[in-house]
Fold these 2 entries.
Entry 1:
Amino acid sequence: SYVLTQPPSVSEAPGQTARITCGGDNIGIKSVHWYQQRPGQAPVLVVHDDSVRPSEIPDRFSGSNSGNTATLTINRVEVGDEADYYCQVWDSSTDHPLFGGGTKLTVL
Amino acid sequence: EVQLVESGGGLVQPGGSLRLSCVASGFTFSNYNMNWVRQAPGKGLEWLSYINSRSSIIYYAESVKGRFTFSRDNAKNSLYLQMNSLRAEDTAVYYCASVAYDSSGYLDFWGQGTLVTVSS
């Protein structure tokens, strides 16, 4: 079955750029979606279809997808961005969402 | 405003049963495919089950197949997850989530979750 691989953790200083990757076999041909989950809260969609941002999400969040890696980029990272981030694709062979293992973003 | 509100979680003994509910509001529920996703303490997101808008297609993760039953009542804007033969490893926060309409499969709205604890 298809596997999405994320680094367990990423750290970045406030004001810098954080990049969270999601690896998968030829993931570039799939639509990748990203969720932010703050401690004790439900996941929130921050990017869908590789790079589309819901209207309520700050434009500091962006996404890209090519080859075997999709990337969520957070510019000018803030302490409030500290959260777990999950990538997701739709597994069309079994008709369900497939999640990466999640990445904990720490803003030092 | 779109809302998904889960209920029915609690403490249950191993081997016991529990029924979760999820009530939707703020959108045309009957048009949307829905999912249950859970998160064990300190772990990632695990998809459990999918149901299409008309209940004609239902899928389950292997981890719950044969033990959990996903259903919906469009007249009541509600989802249900009947969980039987519960195990310690079913301890988790359970979320209902909608698949964005006519999309590539992203989950646009999530409930706040309900905690299920399986313990003696």
Entry 2:
Amino acid sequence: GAGVSQSPSNKVTEKGKDVELRCDPISGHTALYWYRQSLGQGLEFLIYFQGNSAPDKSGLPSDRFSAERTGGSVSTLTIQRTQQEDSAVYLCASSQGLAGGNEQFFGPGTRLTVL
Amino acid sequence: QQPVQSPQAVILREGEDAVINCSSSKALYSVHWYRQKHGEAPVFLMILLKGGEQMRHEKISASFNEKKQQSSLYLTASQLSYSGTYFCGTSRGSELSFGAGTTVTVRA
């Protein structure tokens, strides 16, 4: 079946603009995670959704970042008033349950460049 | 809290072995290992659960010492395809905290 998909694959924006990044998880996966990977760095956890529970937003770096998941499927990560330090690859992953006990399937990522 | 991985990088010739270590300052429920090739998404290798057995993926194996909160990834008889950056992810249940990664280069 189809894997995790993300769009757009690349996004170039100007400082101060808002951007929306989309993630389509694998059908049936209840958990969805967003990570940020800066050049040459590891994966930084941002937020996760599990079923109908309230999302864990503990990794969001500032209040300019927000995310939602509609209908337990598609998720959108929104960054308001983008800054140059927001430039990174944003990865989405889904799993059948919480990450602790389940394999995570990663999407190809969205490369965000803030000029 | 982010786990600590070592070494940061390793260069091998085909057929050589290597060990990558991952340690956490907190008690863990599980440890995951992923490999990421340049420009691609991370790919799952294996998960080690508390109280579980040593796991294996092809000639790559891993162990999890719960008491020491450490895991090691063993690359045995390395192949060119093993090149990439290896990340350990530690979990206390719901989230994964990833290490900074270990870049492995396997040369012919």
